[in-house]
Amino acid sequence: MAKRRGGFQGGGGGAPNMNQLMQQAQKMQRDLEQAQSEAANITSEASVGGGMIEVKVDSNHQIVDLKIDPAVIDPEDPEMLVDLFTAAVNEANRTLDEKVEATMSKVTGNSNLGMFGL
């Protein structure tokens, strides 16, 4: 009767080389850190109303630039200004998310690991 071995036995039989796994994990960590650094510098811009309102947001979804054409400021219709501003901010944030996702997917291979918080 052959003696049965249990547990991980380094070496043959197609078992993973722990050093190789550690090197791969370290490379992925470096790649992930670089992608996060790149994502932190991404900005996004949106323009609505034929350029009447332009918004620029940074990677934290903070507005860093805002341009409003005075012609769009109508005291009789403040809702229009609110609607245009809201649309511009939402579009800028939507495209920002797409850019960040594209940057991170270079490392994650399009898998959503849920750990980036960006």
Give me the CATH superfamily of one domain. Nucleoid-associated protein YbaB-like domain
Unreliable spans: none
Provide the helix percentage. Answer: 40-55%
Shape: rod-shaped
What does it look like?
- The protein has 118 residues and is an alpha+beta fold.
- It has a domain at 43-108: Ybab, Chain: A, CATH 3.30.1310.10.
- It is built from two helices and three strands, in the order αβββα.
- The protein has helices at residues 18-40, 78-108; strands at residues 44-48, 53-57, 63-68.
- It has a three-stranded antiparallel β-sheet, covered by helices on one side.
- Helix 1 (18-40) packs antiparallel against helix 2.
- It is rod-shaped, with a radius of gyration of 25 Å.
- The relative contact order is 0.15.
- The mean pLDDT is 85.
Please name the defining characteristics of this protein.
alpha+beta; 118 residues; 46% helix; Ybab, Chain: A; rod-shaped; 3-stranded antiparallel β-sheet; 2 helices
Layout of helices and strands:
Elements: H1 18-40, E1 44-48, E2 53-57, E3 63-68, H2 78-108
Antiparallel strand pairs: 1-2, 2-3
Could you give a short description of this structure?
The protein is α+β, with helices and mostly antiparallel strands and 118 residues long. The protein is 46% helix and 14% strand.
